[in-house]
């Protein structure tokens, strides 16, 4: 695991966009899986601004969906696909045929998960995973406890995730209770795993991610086991002890 420290959220977003642009410049059709959530939104906007200036071309990327709420249709604006479309696919002008959704059309959602994981593997795995850090250390919707080899699967949302997503749904009772998520196995196998972390509210869980025990109770702690992981964090998230570590 490597760490890059940024002064604030704006610098983190520019740094993440630059890192992505460099990788895309080297391999324009790379396989990327992208988080929704608030943290990476400005990074995606920076990347889109770079594309408008002709500094990067993201139109040939292969984009994989990271997670989804079960039983929420893709055309619902609150779906995670809808969020990815607005924040990443549309601004970067990525055509539909280069996007791999977590197809939830099958009556058996686990079969969809298995098929999606097989597709990711058949296409060579993720080159880049852009991830956010859940309040309880979840990556995508790999809620604690999740082992390092947890597969792509249906997962009930944890209480922490329900609370943190309640603002998007108009109250905790309206948050969909089930999700599908890319597995820890796929995410940890990414050639580059970028974890974006911003703000003081993430300080304690980032400390546990980087310096606590490696444990299924903090799924994000497994990123320490691979040299292919990169934490991009602002000083507010890192706090004094980790900034100077
Ligand atoms: N399932 C999503 C994750 O993909 C996201 O990365 C994380 C952090 O979200 P945020 O960046 O808003 O803190 O929580 C959500 O529940």
UniProtKB/TrEMBL annotation:
Gene3D superfamilies named in the record: 3.40.50.1360
Any Pfam family the entry gives: Glucosamine_iso
Domain Glucosamine/galactosamine-6-phosphate isomerase: 12-229
Molecular function in Gene Ontology: glucosamine-6-phosphate deaminase activity; identical protein binding
SUPFAM superfamilies: NagB/RpiA/CoA transferase-like
One of the GO BP terms on file: N-acetylneuraminate catabolic process
One GO cellular component term noted in the UniProt record for this chain: cytoplasm
Keywords assigned by UniProt, alphabetized: Hydrolase
Protein name: Glucosamine-6-phosphate deaminase
Species: Sandaracinobacteroides saxicola
